[in-house]
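Subject: for your reference before the review

Hello V.,

The reviewers asked for a structural picture of the protein, and I figured it would be easier to keep everything in one thread rather than splitting it across files. Below is the amino acid sequence we used in the manuscript, unchanged from the supplementary table.
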Amino acid sequence: MPASSRIRARRRVAAAAVLPLLAVVLTSCGYGSKADKTDDQPGPAASGKALSADTVKIGYFPNLTHATALVGVQNGILQKELGGTQVSPRTFNAGPSEIEALNARSIDIGFIGPSPAINGYTQTKGKGLRIIGGSASGGVKLVVNPKKIKTLDDVKGKRIATPQLGNTQDVAFLNWIAEKGWKVDGQSGKGDVSVVRTDNKTTPDAYKSGSIDGAWVPEPTASKLVAEGAKEILDESSLWPDKKFVITNIIVSQTFLKEHPDVVEAVLRGSVKTNDWINANPEQAKASANKALKSLSGKALPPEVLDPAWKSIQFTNDPLASTLQTEAGHAVKAGLLESPDLNGIYDLKPLNKVLKANGESTVGDAGLGVK
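And here is what came back from the structure prediction:
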């Protein structure tokens, strides 16, 4: 075995030994894909004076819920704030790969979902990352075969897909089932509802074949299923206070944050300006995100998928910290997670500095910030 392979193997073993249950159940950014990185999204060249680092390596997913990164890179908004410090984008299809890259310093900053953020923080005993900002909320739906399921009560006894054991949507669905008073074993997915863990890439085929009766999934998978004849029966945002819950956060390596606070602040200025532009120009932003997706995957989303998917996502600078804590609690309740210590997972001081300078409201860390 080559030395590099042995090193990677030792890293995986060491990470698994820290907290095996977390490593098993919190492994996705909400999309269930196990694939490695995709082609990187090209961005504009740096110009002007560099900050304290010549380059900042930013990771994210080629998904609509990561549109802050997709649009911010493509439109040059992030690069403009960084001046002569070059943005080096890298895209991933799975949360664990992005966390591994952050720990290995292959990326410095990442856009990622709540489950892998919790996992990455806990596996390193609170020394690996900080959540420094929000990016997106919502974009998760329960869609079903309308011939088999006409009401929410009809879900009992049916086969419903989630992206992956213990991922953000899987935990949310298990919690919803429990609140209905139904019983399901979290690990096996067997019980009053059959929870079928299915990669989002194959979920539409599973639906068409009849092997599942519906799915609790993020966008754009939900809208892809609707385009195949499924019906939306529940938007997860309706279950949350103010209809908001975190789906994408911004994380940073603690080492990079300490060594290059000016670069981190510049990226946050760019993300805030990107979100402001997205919210002020939704149609242009939607087209920009879809253009970036086409550049990365070779295929743009058709309007019948793109339009409803985009409409269900809210782009926000607020990391919605209280919902992260609630989501972790749901995983504990489902028997998929040992109660994690999340104290110190947030450092929102740089973001709040940026928001104050922009005349915008600051955001809170739900008591989980660095002291």
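For the response letter, the relevant points are probably these. Residues 1-37 have pLDDT under 50 and may be disordered. DSSP finds 15 helices and eleven strands in the chain.

Happy to draft the paragraph if you're swamped.

O.
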